[in-house]
Amino acid sequence: MIRPFTASGGGPGVKPSPTGGVAIKAPAAQFGARHVILWGRGRSHHVHEFEGPLSIKSVVRGSAFWRTDAGRVGIDAATYMVVNDAQPYSIDIESDEPVETFCVFFRRGFVEQARVVLAGEEDRLLDHSGLDRPGLGEPGPGAQGCTGFETLRARDAGVLAILKETHAILTRGRPPGAWLEDRLADLAVTLLRAQADVRRQMARIPAARPATRSELYRRLRRAVDFVEGSLAEPLDLEAMARAACLSPFHFHRRFSESFGETPHQFVRRRRLETARDLLLRTDLPVTVVCHRSGFESLGSFSALFRRRFGAPPLRYRREAASNSKS
Q1: Sequence-separated (6 or more) residues with CB below 8 Å from residue 253
Q2: Are 110 and 104 in contact (CB under 8 A)?
Q3: Which of 238, 134, 174, 228 is nearest to 37 (CA)?
Q4: Rounded distance between C-alpha atoms, residue 313 and residue 298, angstroms
Q5: Helix axes 298-309, 263-281, angle to 10 degrees
Q6: How many other C-beta atoms are found inside a 10 Å radius of the C-beta of residue 217?
Q7: Range of the domain at 308
Q8: Confidence at residue 8, expressed as pLDDT on a 0 to 100 scale
Q9: Same domain, 242 and 275
Q10: 195 and 80, same domain (yes or no)
Q11: What letter would DSSP give residue 107?
Q12: CB-based burial of residue 293 (10 Å sphere; 0-12 exposed, 13-18 middle, 19+ buried)?
């Protein structure tokens, strides 16, 4: 069951009602029958084992944890999560500061139709378009709910840009329904292209059978999700390998082949990117940013940050603030 935030987002003049083919903050009964956009702000929010259509979970402010059968996944403003059709999920938010989430639930069959078109199988789509039946727009046999997204937590810039743009427009009031439908069509295509990148990444794993390759990639992604949710904690190769259910040597080798960097390099890069985001989005002292990003030594953190971003942390923050005002 979905329970609303104690304080809902949505901006001036936005009320729970349909916008063209897109419903804003609709009841759970409408999920899957049409596109639904659901978002809100609050310090406490809990959903337990909800099964809906293919959806994208994102966070505008703060961070939140979703749970599926694949594990617990932390999402912040720089990431999003894909939940497959009919995949049960739970969310728990208990925060001192307000957390704002923004979630898109696709109409069942919609992303599958986009996948068919991108794959050049338009004849199949036309055969099952439903145009000759009552109930125009209902998914036909060739457009069941879309499943099979191998990665839960992702950072594709194109997907994030559309989510942020859509949220920004909605918070200013109600856009035309056609605009929303166009943006969700763009979002579906962008999501599928991001998934194609994942498949190409998966193909780099040397394995005799596709099923073995898929399983190895799933385990590596589990380790990535573990790292992303534990950046502020001590992380070593053994802990990451345990998350992937692989031996340390096997994990190190397959991770490096798949992602083009070693596990250690990945952890360091993500900690530096997290530190940069904290510097730009908060007024936290550099020492606090250092520790929240998982670095133990301020001197080492400053040197690594300067090497990656061209300036030490405090100067980087000041220059970014100055550039935003000019």
Answers
A1: none
A2: no
A3: 174
A4: 10
A5: 90
A6: 22
A7: 266-325
A8: 42
A9: no
A10: yes
A11: P
A12: buried
Domains held by the chain: number: 3
How many residues appear in the chain? 326
Letter for the amino acid at 187?
L
Are the beta carbons of 11 and 173 closer than 8 angstroms? Answer: yes
Max avg pLDDT among 18-22, 31-35, 191-195, 243-247: 243-247
Same domain (yes/no): 109, 132? yes
Say if residues 17 and 36 touch (Cβ distance below 8 Å): no
Give the up-direction half-sphere exposure of residue 89: CA atoms within 13 A in the CB hemisphere.
Answer: 24
Interval 27-69: pLDDT, tens = 788 888 899 999 888 888 888 999 999 999 999 988 888 888 8
Enter the DSSP assignment of 261.
S
Buried residues in 153-191 as b, exposed as e (16+ CB within 10 A): bbebeebbebbeebbeebbeebbeeeebbebbebbbbbb
CB-count exposure of residue 310 (10 Å: 0-12, 13-18, 19+):
exposed
Determine the Cα–Cα distance for residues 168 and 165; give it in Å rounded to an integer: 5
Q: Does residue 18 or residue 321 have the better pLDDT?
A: 321
Do residues 77 and 21 touch, judged by C-beta distance below 8 A?
A: no
Q: Which helix (H) or strand (E) holds 201?
A: helix 177-203
pTM of the model: 0.71
Is residue 99 domain-shared with residue 130, that is, in the same domain?
A: yes
**103-141 pLDDT, tens per residue?**
999 999 999 888 888 877 545 544 554 433 333 233 443
Find tokens 């190409």 and name the residue: 200
Quick check: helix, strand or coil at residue 75? strand
Q: Measuring CA to CA, how many Å separate 131 from each of 108, 123, 135, 139, 289?
A: 17, 14, 9, 10, 56
How does the average pLDDT of the chain come out, rounded?
Answer: 82
- List the structure tokens of 87: 């995949």
Q: For tokens 């809990």, what's the residue?
A: 46
The DSSP code sequence of 21-52 is TEEES--GGGBTTBEEEEEEEEEEEEEEEE--
